[in-house]
Here is the input.
Amino acid sequence: MGLSTHVLDTMNGCPAAGMEVALYSTHGDAATLLQRLVLNHDGRTDAPLFDNASLRAGTYRLRFDVAGYFKAKGVQLPEPNFLNQVSLDFGVAHEDQHYHVPLLVSPWSYSTYRGS
Here is the structure.
């Protein structure tokens, strides 16, 4: 169970290896940084963001550095970028379930869903 994420680069048809991600806990408008990480060669974290024992019910935010990732890949982006940071706010209601938060992203669009 726990919490995990995965990012796919839909522009290039590959995992978003090297993308920077930050995880926050949220309470109303306040956000507390829990960890920063860089996605591995498969566009995933090396370990779960939370394992089974440490996941708690509550609200969270994942912030993905989309512009930084695509700039590092050599993509010519306009200034200002259409997408800079993508923030996904979500809730965990059941500590005994797995919450997987994937992101499919290009410099101009993104989508997400609760994965398995």
In short: The mean pLDDT is 96.
